[in-house]
Amino acid sequence: MSKKVLVLSTSPRKGGNSDTLADEFIRGAQNAGHHVEKVTLYDKTIAFCKGCLTCQRTQRCVIRDDADVITQRMLTADVIVFATPIYYYGMCGQMKTMLDRANPLFPSDYQFRDVYLLAAAAEENEHTVDGTVTGLQGWIDCFEKARLAGTVFAGGVTSVGEIQGHPALQQAYEMGQKV
């Protein structure tokens, strides 16, 4: 059965290593027959959450910017994929801000069940991704019908394009196929 997959590439760099992981996941998911939409945050205007909690009543954010539009797309996706570079052992600020701004989803009848994480970092240690996984899991835990379905981590990549030939690209492709 074909699923509606939303890939959020949160890197501030166009064509960065985590963005390349996202493209491989997309290729795998499309080859498996899924409908995939990719949204990149590097060219979006996303303000910080104001903490007003109006969204808990209205299921829409009072800030009308790109995050409001993206959140509405998240609402109707079967699968959400986050791709992020890892900075200081955590997700990039763009991803964290988007997670905060997705607060209108909390009281909603969201459709997503599976959430995936694709991450790239200069540091090679396998535990480099742990802080990012913990942060994303904290968000997922607020959605009782959702789960972290898989993670791909590419360590040892810094400059744009450095990920070429990294085994994580194949892992991302295969994960996309199994959605």
Automatic annotation (TrEMBL):
Which residues are in the NADPH-dependent FMN reductase-like domain?
Answer: 4-122
InterPro entries per record: Flavoprotein-like_sf (IPR029039), FMN_Rdtase-like_dom (IPR005025), ISF_SsuE-like (IPR051796)
Keyword set, alphabetical order: Flavoprotein, FMN
Domain of life per record: Bacteria
Q: What is this protein called?
A: Flavodoxin family protein
Task: Supply the source organism for this entry.
Answer: Flavonifractor hominis
